[in-house]
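Our preliminary data section would be incomplete without showing what the modeling component actually yields. Below, a chain of 486 amino acids is followed by its predicted structure, encoded as tokens that our downstream tools consume directly.
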Amino acid sequence: MTKKASLSSAIIIGLITFLCFTGMAAEQTPTQPNILFIMVDDLGKEWISCYGAEDIKTPNIDALAAGGMIFNNAYSMPSCTPSRTTLLTGKYPFRTGYVNHWDVPRWGIGYFDWKQKPNTTFARLMKDLGYRTFATGKWQLNDFRLEPLAMQKHGFDDWAMWTGCETSKDKTHEKKSTQRYWNAHINTKEGSKTYKGQFGPDLYTDHLINFMRKNKDKPMCIYYPMVLPHTPVAATPDEPKAKGVLGKHKAMVRYIDKMVGKLVNELDELGIRERTIIIFTTDNGSAPPPRGVIGTRNGRKIVGAKSTETEVGICAPFIVNGPGLVPAGVETDALTDFTDMLPTFLELGGGTPPSDLIVDGRSIAPLILGKQQDSDRDWIMAMGYGGAKLDAQGVRGVNDFSSRIIRDKQHKVYINNERKIIRLHNLKEDPWEENNLIDKTSPELQQALGKFQAVLDFLPEKDARPLYEPRAANPWDRNIMKKRNR
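Predicted structure:
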């Protein structure tokens, strides 16, 4: 072989090698977007400056809104457990039975049971699509003392969760387990332990970052139900001298914003920002005084309205951001609620809900990807507040039929425990719900009432009970009939 021929062969071999290598690299790069769902605990729009909050600045959250999509009409549920089970399953509380708050580590019986197919979570379904799944923050739906691998069974590959208050005969342990902030009590695959002298939000975020670093070359679905800024309020590492409920609350909100910025910076550092969709929202409105706060939004004083069916209590801040994926600078009046998240995640990942799994929500993926200008929702619903109760069969809602609200872009109705519409509001003319129009007879209002009545007629006459395998009461359980969970 001549020297010229040898050189040509080397070039060809090198070119083939390069093409093979780049082809393998392309094959290994995930085409499915990462999903980072951040849900803070007890925070209304009056504490997010891009929603008109005047008493605080949240620059990192505002940047997500400016570079993405901000929703005006997104519903959570009124309180903790209903919001979380709705989000996880894509079902309204009347189907899951979690129509009231139920703090499992505190009250025991009535856990969120992975063995029941209707309780299938988005995490399990995303794993089927090849996603690596992770959760960090607040859970409270299982007792990790009895079910140490509950998170894995719900579909999460890894986790770092505040356990929730673990009621115990050992009062020292009980006090330790309440800590979600300083000296946080956190459950991981290695078990539960107290991290003395450390601030929980830093630990949850650091666990999340470690997971992203290990899995950056794979598609990831990450659920971050933050513990902030739920009471009891706490001083943060950045503002250790913060005083009073309001001062500490503001410090905690600023720390939320800091954690959001830290996660965005990490995504940039890992080179995966442009294939990551971030959703920022809250589980319900802010807590009311005296434990909670009053904020100012667009010139109006807003009293925290957690556990109410008012717009202040359930119309959540909801921001979607993903450079190159989600259109920037969009403000939308599209309707969505937490039932939509499961089908949305699945569509973003290239899948659909199983045909044998009931899902109440509809995917908003086409909307957030800029393929549609509106969602497919004609109405959204919220329900579920107050404490649940026990009877001879176990956990159940306080009423056979829980009160709820239904709304579209203009009108909203309140439905009581007797399945009757008792309030009607025109939210475009009366956003603060001060004028009940139920007795008005205009054709427009009668048409709206007819629409909502048709939805109500479709709903079951009785709410379901939570699905779980019964078990004996734990020796540390509190008596729910004597002392209500807060």
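Confidence is low (pLDDT under 50) at residues 1-8, 10-28, 481-486. The chain has 14 helices and 18 strands. Preliminary results of this kind motivate Aim 1 of the renewal.
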